[in-house]
Specification:
four-stranded parallel β-sheet; 131 residues; alpha/beta; two-stranded antiparallel ribbon
Length: 131
């Protein structure tokens, strides 16, 4: 089905082209909808710090029993004020999701050039660590 369509990224990893977005899903609704999406065949799950649902999304991923290697999990740091402490925020988000690593981590909102460049360097370091 369409949820199986994938593209190969420059680093050799594969990303499902159709993802399940969790914006505006909170609490039990976020859990239930994410679990249903995974059961329906979605393998790309998108969330963010600002959605305030990473823990529920993580529980649904865990409870789906879909092997982690079959999933593409994306989240974002949303608060530019935290870009300077990106590693700490990333660790908190990763703990909430419980996935061990992320497939895609993004800057959700613009910041000044210096903060954006510092955040980018932090993200490169996390990538080099396999996170």
């Amino acid at each position: 089905g369409p949820a199986a369509a994938r593209a190969q990224l420059a680093d050799g990893h594969w990303m499902p082209l159709i993802g399940f977005g969790t914006w505006q899903l909170v609490g039990q609704q976020a859990y239930d909808a994410t679990l249903a999406a995974l059961q329906a065949g979605y393998r790309h799950i998108d969330t963010a710090q600002a959605y305030m649902n990473e823990r529920e999304v993580g529980f649904a991923i865990r409870d789906s029993l879909v092997p982690r290697g079959e999933l593409f999990v994306a989240t974002k740091i949303s608060d530019p004020g935290e870009y300077a402490a990106l590693e700490r925020r990333f660790a908190e988000q990763l703990e909430a999701l419980g996935t061990g690593y992320l497939d895609l981590y993004m800057l959700h909102s613009p910041a000044d050039r210096a903060a954006t460049e510092a955040a980018w360097r932090s993200m490169e370091a996390l990538h080099d660590q396999g996170k």
